[in-house]
Amino acid sequence: MLLNVSCHLYLSLGCHMFMQARFKPIISMLEDIYTSVMCRVGTKHDLCETLDRNICPRIMRKLHKLKDKSRFWQARAAGNGKYNVCHGLEGYVFSIIDKTCTCRVWELSGIPCVHAIAVMREERQNVEDFVHDYYSVDMYKKAFANAINPVNGRNQWVKQDVPTFLPPQFDVSLKNLAFKRRSEEGENSNEKVQTSERMSRKGHHKTCSRCGVSGHTKRTCS
Fold first, then answer.
1. What is the DSSP code string of 21-50?
2. SS3 annotation, 74-139
3. Which pLDDT tens digit goes with each residue over 18-76?
4. What is the DSSP letter of 195?
């Protein structure tokens, strides 16, 4: 579980920071990602030392909102640890022994749903005791326990006896070059692409309106 939490945190942070640094050169991009992740992990590590509750602050804020919504739900005991939680025309079956609800929110998220909180209110139980360990402060501290060590700047890098890699040359003359569309099979590449809505007159036989002879028009009629 701890490995999955750490991987998820570092991957999510890395993807977000990679999107910001992706347009930089390779070395600058890696330095930017490394510095951002190092500062992020260091900030979270210091934050963990100030937390004095068992549940992370973000989850606690979510629980407070769910507690306010649970006031509108009525829990009715059915025996054997099962309850019928209803509000208006809506109703769900909750089992406090199996820790399951037919809405399946608790099973999917690990946070008690609004129906579970309504039952816990009737049972006089603490909601924080039913939150999954994934959201505990201890798990949060373990995820950020290992800090990322800083490294020296480029002036301290050991020079290697390798050839210098130069960027590819960019031809300025190709900047404003208009590329033509490739002709498809059976299409004459020398034909001009019709860009207007007028139809082509190719293949149309001209007929003179003055003398009635085909092959020319009245403009060229003699």
1. HTTS-HHHHHHHHHHHHHHHHHHHHHHHTT
2. EEEEEECCEEEEEECCEEEEEECCCCEECCCHHHHHCCCCHHHHHHHHHHCCCHHHHCCHHHEHHH
3. 677 777 788 888 888 888 888 888 888 888 888 888 888 889 999 999 999 998 998 88
4. -
